[in-house]
């Protein structure tokens, strides 16, 4: 999802020499093929959007794959980039790097101040290692080799190219699918796990892509002024959140599902609120552009095209 959105954004901005690979073409967990890829292509800039990703169910079921694949992908790509003279790289992390009980909204300096959410701890530990890889290469090779590796931590993303798998998807694609099917089947009600009261932040993926290109191309002196050598990552969010109930109502309206929506408070809610503090990014001159209703309408159009 994000990689494709970054490609769309770069193309819109006139870049005409973008090199991409699918998972089938290049397994980033294999050090040898990654080294060969970089030796052949010698890119100037690298956006590392590939990762093993998924919701709670997938994280709980495949914890070994979530930590191993992500550690390997990052270590292979970041080191091969360095070995082949790449000076600019952007690593994509996630908001789950922050402690489960971090103060809200979550600032960058909440990193490593507390215990992580256990369900996605292996994934989060890998993402934290990715941030520290970037910072460490900068600290060791920044002056000698001009290495400038940056990282961005997006909030929950949605939009074209999302994963609509019935079990392994995030909340927005899961609800789009369920309301769409309920409308088609004239179901009298849709039941949603949890109380509906937790608040979450959602960012349209093209906004995320625009933020990535913005951060990649900031002059080094500006990036350095707004970050620290051992606290180099930047949050990417829209700055506002909605309850799951509000989200469900907007999705139902977008899809034209008019029957009942029920909530099951006996099922787990997760933390009451999860919102990024994106002040650092805002101070670097970037703001989200696409509102939730507009973004969800575009996401549903994409769902209809692909289903
Ligand atoms: N989506 C969100 O809400 C969200 C939120 C926060 C952070 N992020 C971060 O944003 C980045 C992109 O996420 P996304 O939502 O765009 O996920 P995505 O749509 O699943 O894209 C990830 C891509 O990485 C590929 N990949 C996985 N393992 C690979 C491997 N070993 N070698 C090569 N390619 C591999 C996947 O290919 P296959 O599908 O074929 O395996 C897929 O094309 C990730 O770093 C993720 O952690 C996403």
- What's the number of extended β-strand segments? 11
Ends distance: 16 Å
- Tell me the fraction of residues in β-strands, as a range: 5-15%
Q: Give the H and E element order.
A: HHEHHEHEEHEEEHHEEHEEHH
Number of helices: 11
| Average pLDDT figure | 96
Bound molecules: NADP nicotinamide-adenine-dinucleotide phosphate
Shape: globular
Low-confidence stretches: none
Kindly report the spatial arrangement of strands forming the biggest sheet. 1-2-3-8
Structure description:
45% of the residues lie in helices and 14% in strands. It is built from eleven helices and eleven strands. The strands form four sheets. It has a four-stranded parallel sheet with strand order 1-2-3-8, sandwiched between helices. Strand 2 (88-92), helix 5 and strand 3 (148-154) form a beta-alpha-beta unit. The site of NADP nicotinamide-adenine-dinucleotide phosphate has 22 residues, from helix 1, helix 4 and strand 4. The site of NADP nicotinamide-adenine-dinucleotide phosphate (NAP) has 22 residues, from helix 1, helix 4 and strand 4.
């Amino acid at each position: 999802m994000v990689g494709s959105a970054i490609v769309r954004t770069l193309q819109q901005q006139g870049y005409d020499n973008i090199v991409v690979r699918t998972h089938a073409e290049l397994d980033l967990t294999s050090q040898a093929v990654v080294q060969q890829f970089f030796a052949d292509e010698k890119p100037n800039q690298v956006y590392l959007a590939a990762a093993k990703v998924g919701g709670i169910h997938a994280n709980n079921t495949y914890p070994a794959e979530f930590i191993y694949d992500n550690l390997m992908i990052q270590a292979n790509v970041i080191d091969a980039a360095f070995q082949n003279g790449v000076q600019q790289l952007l690593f994509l992390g996630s908001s789950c790097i922050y402690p489960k009980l971090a103060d809200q909204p979550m600032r960058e300096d909440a990193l490593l101040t507390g215990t992580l959410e256990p369900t996605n701890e292996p994934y989060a530990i890998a993402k934290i290692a990715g941030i520290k890889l970037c910072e460490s290469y900068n600290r060791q090779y920044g002056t000698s080799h001009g290495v400038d590796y940056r990282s961005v931590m997006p909030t929950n993303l949605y939009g074209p190219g999302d994963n609509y798998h019935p079990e392994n998807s995030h909340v927005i694609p899961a609800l789009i699918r369920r309301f769409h099917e309920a409308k088609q089947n004239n179901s009298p009600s849709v039941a949603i796990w949890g109380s509906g009261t937790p608040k979450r932040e959602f960012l349209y993926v093209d906004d995320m892509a625009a933020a990535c290109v913005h951060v990649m191309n900031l002059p080094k002196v500006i990036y350095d002024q707004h970050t620290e050598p051992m606290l180099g990552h930047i949050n990417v969010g829209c700055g506002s959140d909605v309850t799951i109930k509000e989200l469900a109502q907007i999705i139902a309206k977008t899809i034209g599902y008019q029957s009942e929506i029920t909530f099951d408070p006996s099922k787990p809610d997760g933390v009451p609120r999860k919102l990024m503090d994106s002040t650092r990014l805002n101070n670097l001159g970037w703001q989200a552009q696409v509102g939730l209703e507009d973004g969800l309408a575009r996401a549903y159009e994409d769902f209809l095209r692909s289903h």
